[in-house]
Write a structure and sequence with these properties.
Radius of gyration: 19 Å
Largest sheet: 8 strands, parallel, barrel
Order of helices and strands: EEEHHEHEEEEHEHEHEHEHHHEHH
Strand content: 15-25%
Low-confidence stretches: none
Length: about 325
């Protein structure tokens, strides 16, 4: 597994991270997953070369963090880089976000909220520190907190040893610049897939300019780009409202996946591998965040990091993807 250096972390991190949103279960993923399988998957990740494990309190109201905490009891803490997040809350007021299982979620990035969240995350994870502490979404009115104030708290937590590095998810290019004005921003999470390349316009160039790693989440569009779904697939949970899961769009994506089949033979890999390898080919500071609910899925996903697509094939895949936008 290839690794990169992220900010001030004292360990290199794998170019593929394990995302645990699905492991957390809940209605977004069609119900809870088998806990034993989830714990086994997390514990297998470092053995497969994946040492970055991503979670968040907002993944089924802390359940993802709790499951990760249980898994860590059977692991060496120093072998993994834990990413968790702050800013999405359900037990205090904030700017309206959305409802899950009838419970209202809010955005709150105030000092008071962050200090409460960090302690709850540390408790659920049962660890002394978090490797990367990341804003999950950005602050909006009417409970707006300037990034400068949020960074003051994060710099304080870093000085106290509760966190080792700072990240930000779902940020605009201007927000990245603002974070960098007030301290070290080490990694940005953004949606990035063959089908969704919006980060390439401004966000990725700014990250490259400042040496900030960009971690692509949903590189397989919630399973659509795996090549494993049948043409009559019916979306579930969080997939239902997404653009590419609309019936007319899905069929066009399936046509695109069929066009990739010659490449799977050329590189002796799966369609999912090709789509993830394409993201990794964009820049050495781009890393992937790939969800999995068992060790077999992690093992399959890791293969994408071993593929070296030719420049011609990278360009061809881009042309095919751009044709879908027309």
């Amino acid at each position: 597994m290839k690794t990169i250096k992220i900010g001030t972390l004292d360990k290199p991190v794998s170019r593929m991270g394990l995302g645990t949103w699905a492991i957390g279960g809940g209605s977004a993923w069609g119900g809870d997953k088998d806990k034993a399988d989830s714990i086994a998957a997390i514990q297998a990740a470092p053995k497969l070369g994946v040492n970055m494990i991503d979670t968040a309190p907002g993944y089924n109201f802390g359940n993802s963090e709790r499951i990760l905490g249980e898994a860590l009891k059977g692991m060496k803490r120093e072998e993994v880089a834990i990413v968790t997040k702050f800013g999405v809350v359900w037990d205090r007021e904030g700017s309206l976000f959305n409802k899950v299982n009838g419970r209202q979620l809010y955005w709150n990035l105030s000092r008071e909220s962050i200090l409460e969240e960090i302690d709850k995350s540390l408790e659920r994870l049962d660890v002394d520190y978090i490797d990367v502490y990341m804003s999950h979404w950005q602050s909006v009115e009417p409970y707006y907190t300037p990034i400068s104030e949020t960074m003051d708290v994060l710099n304080e937590l870093k000085a106290r040893g509760k966190i080792r590095a700072i990240g930000a998810a779902n940020v605009s290019p201007a927000q990245v610049e603002e974070y960098l004005k007030w301290g070290s921003l080490d990694i940005v999470q953004a949606k990035y897939s063959v089908l969704d390349r919006g980060v390439e316009a401004e966000l990725l160039p700014i990250c490259k300019e400042h040496g900030v790693a960009l971690q692509a989440y949903s590189p397989l569009e919630m399973g659509l780009l795996t090549g494993a779904l049948p043409r009559d697939y019916q979306p579930v949970g969080a997939q239902i409202p997404k653009k590419w899961f609309q019936p007319e769009n899905m069929q066009r994506v399936f046509d695109y996946l069929d066009e990739l089949k010659p490449l799977t033979e050329k590189y002796q890999c799966s369609i999912a591998d090709i789509n993830m390898a394409w993201i990794l080919a964009q820049d050495e500071k781009v890393v992937l965040l790939s969800g999995a609910i068992n060790a077999e899925q992690i093992s399959q996903n890791v293969r994408a990091t071993e593929i070296e697509l030719s420049a011609e094939d990278v360009a061809m895949i881009r042309d095919m993807a751009e044709a879908l936008d027309r």
